[in-house]
Design goal:
Elements: H1 2-12, E1 14-19, E2 22-23, E3 26-31, E4 34-38, H2 40-49, H3 79-92, H4 100-107, H5 115-130, E5 134-139, E6 148-150, H6 166-185, E7 194-198, H7 201-208, H8 225-232, E8 235-239, H9 256-265, E9 268-270, H10 273-281, H11 308-323, H12 365-370, H13 372-375, H14 390-394, H15 396-411, E10 415-418, H16 441-454, E11 459-463, H17 465-468, E12 477-478, E13 493-496, H18 506-540
Parallel strand pairs: 6-7, 7-8
Antiparallel strand pairs: 1-11, 2-3, 3-4, 4-5, 5-9, 10-13, 12-13
Pfam families: RVT_2
Organism: Tanacetum cinerariifolium (Dalmatian daisy)
InterPro entries: DNA/RNA_pol_sf (IPR043502), RVT_2 (IPR013103)
């Protein structure tokens, strides 16, 4: 660990922060038995924000008899507050896949919410209050498999009576699977014959039939790519009855018993902070754990220590420079083992779902005009804009921190004052310079599952600002911002020397530095290889 930390500090100006406990509002609890992620503190913030701490908790999400609809004659409620709650729910799905269906169903009615919709939203909050310690549990040294369930006949809208063709629903599921397969390739897994369990025989039959016929002439051509992957053997389709369709938890309201069963199959359990401390200090047997903890096997994990070979396979390319310092040869690290052996039978282990639905909002022009005044409240919502609290902005610590953030540009020589160039100003966004501010949370869950599979701990590192503000390859000019206006030369502008977009520079900065390391490594290997060939030739002579 110390060797890797020294390498990251020297090459990427990163500092070790210890074992990870928080990441993007996800609470990460690591123990010898596994890794538990949840968002209990975020749930408490939601309860406090909307004054529902005194409400009675419940154990179910939605009433299966009372289906939600448009409710055009219902009493309207504050749309701004409703949307704010829905936004909080969407982020909670990162560690709470059990609320995906209810949250997405309520999100359909953000344009004109009524008391009926708000009642269901409050029911979700009461459910979260009753299951505040619930989260995803990843067992250490567990199996690592990719199994998929597709509820192909779910897509029907009660308001518009529109439905989605089962084959198209299966296509969407296949696209998600292939994305996960690509992500897992970076971890050394090459999954083939991925089993997809679908509850529509017609969709399976069409997928296995390479011939186009009258029943599929209305399907857009690009949906048929699933047939190509079936022919290649990338995926295999199996029929499963609705009673055993695990994807139902994401698509429909379920009875309590069946809902709780699916929650356990998703790998979710409820662990209080006291139980987490107990897991961290003791090596517990199966009977000592909570009844709903889905652990297939608990061993004495003090004896499970990653071997040097496993570390070499994972960090070999980065370690080589340190391991070979002062020597005349370079040891090439082995590539990751190709894990292509998959089982066709349904596994009995827990399945971690990566479904993350979008948040569709369709608002007509008239509705925009009616709600324009209310929408301005979004800028005063700390869930959306964390800088809206006047007390925080007036605090001396806040002012000092912001001044330090601004003066870093002078300290790092990010810009220089020059005359205004004779050029045309263009407003807009350079999309080539835009990056996603954070990683996809599905990828984070895949990483946690892999770490638990390998029985590795997770450490967190911090990147210095000087690394993120990398040099620019083009000329960029900006007007003098407030607080940096030179009183002697107010008409001049700043010419940027380094990037201003902070964390958004991280992917490019990391890639550039990694490319430099690879080129140095390649040059060293070629030089040593050439020396070996010369010595071999001299020996032959």
């Amino acid at each position: 660990i110390q060797l890797f930390s020294d390498l990251m500090k020297s090459r990427f100006e990163m500092s070790m922060m210890g074992e990870m406990t928080f990441f993007l509002d996800l609470q990460v609890n690591q123990s010898p038995c596994g890794i538990f992620i949840n968002q209990s503190k975020y749930v408490l913030e939601i309860l406090k924000k909307y004054g529902m701490e005194s409400y009675d908790p419940i154990g179910t999400l939605m009433d299966i008899k009372d289906k939600l609809d448009l409710d055009q004659n219902g009493t309207p409620v504050d749309a701004t507050k409703y949307r704010s709650i829905i936004g909080a729910f969407m982020y909670l799905t990162s560690s709470r896949p059990d609320i995906v269906h209810a949250a997405c169903l309520c999100a359909r009615y953000q344009a004109k919410p009524t008391k009926k919709h708000l009642k269901e939203v409050k029911r979700i909050i009461r459910y979260l209050w009753g299951t505040i310690n619930k989260g995803l549990w990843y067992t250490k040294d567990s199996d690592f498999k990719l199994t998929v369930f597709s509820d192909a006949d779910y897509a029907g809208c009660k308001d518009t009576f529109k439905s989605t063709f089962e084959y198209v629903s299966l296509f969407a599921c296949c696209a998600q699977v292939l994305w996960m397969r690509t992500q897992l390739t970076d971890y050394g897994f090459n999954f083939k014959k991925i089993p997809i369990y679908c509850d529509s025989k017609s969709a399976i039959a069409i997928s296995y039939n390479p011939v186009q016929h009258s029943r599929t002439k209305h399907v857009v051509v690009h949906y048929h790519f699933i047939k190509e992957h079936v022919e290649k053997g990338t995926i295999e389709l199996y029929f499963v009855k609705t009673d055993y369709q695990l994807a139902d938890i994401f698509t429909k309201a379920l009875p309590v018993d069946r809902f709780n069963y699916f929650v356990r199959r998703l790998g979710m359990c409820s662990l209080s902070p006291q139980e987490m401390d107990r897991l961290g200090k003791l090596h517990l047997s199966r009977k000592d754990l909570p009844r709903n903890t889905p652990l297939d096997r608990v061993e004495d994990l003090d004896t499970i220590v990653p071997s040097q070979q496993e570390f070499d396979l994972l960090f070999g390319p980065l370690y080589d420079e340190f391991f070979t310092a002062g020597t005349s040869s370079v040891n090439n690290s082995s590539s990751l083992t190709d894990n292509s052996k998959q089982q066709d039978t349904p596994p009995t282990t827990n399945i971690q779902s990566s479904t993350k639905p979008t948040n569709p909002t369709n608002i007509n022009a008239e509705e925009n005009n009616d709600n324009q005044a209310k929408d301005t409240q979004f800028h005063q919502d700390e869930f959306i804009n964390p800088f809206c609290t006047p007390e925080a902005m007036a605090d001396s610590v806040w002012i000092e921190a912001m001044q330090e953030e601004l003066h870093q540009f002078d300290r790092l020589q990010v810009w220089e004052l020059v005359d205004k160039p004779f050029c045309k100003n263009e407003e807009g966004i350079d999309f080539e310079e835009s990056f996603a501010p954070v990683a996809r949370l599905e990828a984070v869950r895949i990483f946690v599952a892999y770490v638990a599979h390998k029985s590795f701990p997770i450490y967190q590192m911090d990147v210095k600002t000087v690394f993120l503000n990398g040099p620019l390859k083009e000329e960029v000019y900006v007007a003098q911002p407030d607080g940096f206006v030179d009183p002697d030369y107010p008409e001049k502008v700043y010419r940027l020397r380094k990037a201003l977009y902070g964390l958004k520079q991280a992917p490019r900065a990391w890639k550039t530095r990694k490319r430099e390391m690879n080129m140095q490594r390649l040059s060293q290997v070629q030089r040593i290889s050439c020396q070996d060939q010369v010595q071999k030739h001299l020996k032959e002579e």
